[in-house]
Structure formats: C-alpha cells, structure tokens
Specification:
Order of helices and strands: HH
Radius of gyration: 22 Å
Distance between the termini: 60 Å
Low-confidence stretches: none
Length: 58
C-alpha cells in the first residue's frame, strides 16, 4: 500500500513558485500599454535579425 505522507520534491516546489511569480508579473504587465507595429515592419525586422545573426555567426 502506498505511503499517504508523500511530500512534494523541492524542485517541484521551486517550479510552482517560479510559475506563480511569472503569473503575477504578467498580471501586473497587463496594465502597461503595448506597442503595435504593422505586420510588414515585423517581417522586415525578423529577416533583418536572421541576416544579422548569420553575419555575426561567421
């Protein structure tokens, strides 16, 4: 029969605490206005970063 006095490992407790902390931070950030950009500018920035990373890698 299984032991009913099971304790949660410390690593799992830290994971849950980290998740709770992240969730609280996200809730606080909901009130901060977000910057909106057009899809075209977003794509240009994406490709620019891809090219920049390729050049930096060499």
């Amino acid at each position: 029969m299984a032991d009913k006095n099971y304790t949660v490992p410390a690593s799992v407790q830290r994971l849950v605490q980290s998740y709770d902390k992240q969730k609280k931070t996200e809730e606080q950030n909901e009130h901060v206005p977000k910057i909106k950009i057009s899809e075209a500018i977003g794509r240009v920035a994406f490709f620019y970063e891809k090219i920049r990373n390729a050049v930096d890698y060499k």
